[in-house]
Amino acid sequence: MSATITGERADAASIRRRAGAPVGRTASMRTRERRRTVSLGIIAWVIGLIFFGPIVWMLLTSLHSETTAATNPPNLFAPLTLSSYANFFGASSGASPWPPLINSVSMSLGSTAIVLILSIPAAYALAIRPVRKWSDVMFFFLTTKMLPMVAGLLPVYLIAKQLGLLDTVGLMVIIYTSMNLPIAVWMMRSFFAEIPLEVIEAAQVDGAGLLLTFRRIIIPLASPGIIATALICFIFSWNELLFASVLTSTTSYTAPVFLTSFVTSEGLFLSKVCAASIAISLPVLAAGFAAQDKLVQGLSLGAIK
Amino acid sequence: MSTAVTLNASHQTLSRASAWARRAPLLPALIFMIIVTQLPFVATLVISFVRWNALYPNDIGFGWFANYAAVFTDQAMLKSVITTVILTVAVVLVSLILGLVIAILLDRKFFGRGFVRTIMIAPFLIVPVAAALVWKHAILNPSYGLLNGTLTWIWGLFGHAASAPQPDWVSSQPLGAIIAALVWQWTPFMMLILLAGLQGRPLDVIEAARIDGADEWQIFRHMTLPHLRQYLELAALLGCIYLVQNFDAVFTITSGGLGTANLPYTIYQTFFEAHDYGQASAAGVVVVIGSMIIATFVLRTVSSLLKEEKR
């Protein structure tokens, strides 16, 4: 189930070889099959490019000047310029994007760090030396993720107001930690469960204590999974809008909240809207591409490997 | 597998102290989650029975089911329930079908498969607000959006650029515009889960069937589809859970106008603009109950997947 794409395809090829294929297949059948593979490949390319189209368009528009971006029909061959990015980051019109970007970075990194600190021991307790009824605990984590966040918004707002935590980075770190912790526990458990128990036992027979086993065996073996978990937590915190737009205002507002200031902007700023969208999406795109292989595990709450 | 075995074997020998040693690493995460997620929900439940509008601070009191009655008789609230259902079902169905087709295409070997897979994932990785902004301003805008620009260009090829149709997409099809943007974002999600499912197929059995003369459709219909069933269910249910909660696209593309306000947006409005805390909480509880119904199906699907893993 957890084999990689290349691994499984290699299996298929070896099975085919062992089966002595092509059994009862003529040359013309093979040509037809090859032609079909090529045409299906072309269809896949076309669909992929269609889905990528809006992103290419976004990039192109962001690289045009405001006057060449807002033309009808589109002018693909207008000279490219970085002026919209300079305009966005230099904030020659409108507010500076730096405070919200710094807020988003600190909230995302802060909550990701706390999530890792809490979820690594929890995953150990759930996968390697499991507590009793571990699957009930797993399902408790899962259910917290399934309840709509909007239903908890008001009490969180009122409590934060009472405690004087409204519009602080710290509050958002706590919110994002609670948002990502269940996902992280699920993902991390499945990565820890893949470590062969014999390796851990061997280390302990050799006299390694728990911390040493963790440092030398568990963390190194699970590190690809830990990194992927961290990247996914980072993505989810970075993307969040609803809580940030209610709980933050003047000092700790985030990059997505900053983006909403473009919601009603008219065509005059089309290029800047696209530049802002690209700039703010870039960290997520980078994290997502880096975690590609494990992405599905995080997105499906660790239910699928 | 091995964890389950050790679990059973070592149960009886566990002393109380070592049981706590086992539990200790789990407790910080568990306690944190209980405090941060369960307490607010209990508070929401309590507030939902309280008559509480922040604009009338002198009129706060226990209101029995008045808020729930208001939720179920409020036309705007009822309409947003219908909108939520239409939006969620439409996006999940369309992106699931598209995702299935694309997953099947990407499961085959072809030139540049890794690259196509990577660019297919990209829409899911754009910040949701940014994606919605780009759809609203750069693609669907009536005077300079890509869609109408392309129409002008095509009509221009035949020398009739001036008479090209230039519909105002967001105004004429507000829900359609939101659905299109969300389908674009969520198809990669469905595709990823289904691709994972396809790659977990027992290829030797399929190869055997092929050698026995089964054609591609028969293999798909009788082997791939039954195998994918759990993954299809999981993708659909997770899609429902995430999309019922969608706020970003509705907020960005129409700001809830033109009959597109879904439940999260309406709750946000009731709370933030009408300041009716009691009614917003009652609506929140209704959403929770709806989600719990979907969630029980998710849990069943997930636990059957976990059983499969353990076998």
Automatic annotation (TrEMBL), chain A:
Protein family: Belongs to the binding-protein-dependent transport system permease family.
Subcellular localization, as worded in the UniProt entry: Cell membrane
Species of provenance: Gryllotalpicola protaetiae
Keyword Transmembrane helix: yes
Topology in the lipid bilayer: Multi-pass membrane protein
GO biological process: transmembrane transport
Pfam family, one: BPD_transp_1
PANTHER family: ABC TRANSPORTER PERMEASE PROTEIN, MALTOSE TRANSPORT SYSTEM PERMEASE-RELATED
Domain spans labelled ABC transmembrane type-1: 101-291
Source lineage: Bacteria, Bacillati, Actinomycetota, Actinomycetes, Micrococcales
UniProt keyword annotations, A-Z: Cell membrane, Membrane, Transmembrane, Transmembrane helix, Transport
Superkingdom of this protein's organism: Bacteria
An annotated GO cellular component: plasma membrane
TM region positions: 38-60, 107-127, 139-159, 165-187, 217-238, 269-291
Name of the featured protein: Carbohydrate ABC transporter permease
Claim: Transmembrane is one of the keywords in the record: yes
UniProtKB/TrEMBL annotation, chain B:
Gene Ontology cellular component terms for the protein in this record: plasma membrane
Chain segments annotated as transmembrane: 26-50, 81-106, 118-138, 175-198, 231-253, 280-302
Example GO biological process: transmembrane transport
ABC transmembrane type-1 domain sequence ranges: 81-298
Annotated keywords: Cell membrane, Membrane, Transmembrane, Transmembrane helix, Transport
Family annotation (Pfam families): BPD_transp_1
Localization: Cell membrane
Coiled coil (UniProt feature): none
UniProt keyword Disulfide bond present: no
Membrane topology: Multi-pass membrane protein
Family: Belongs to the binding-protein-dependent transport system permease family.
Name under which the protein is recorded: Sugar ABC transporter permease
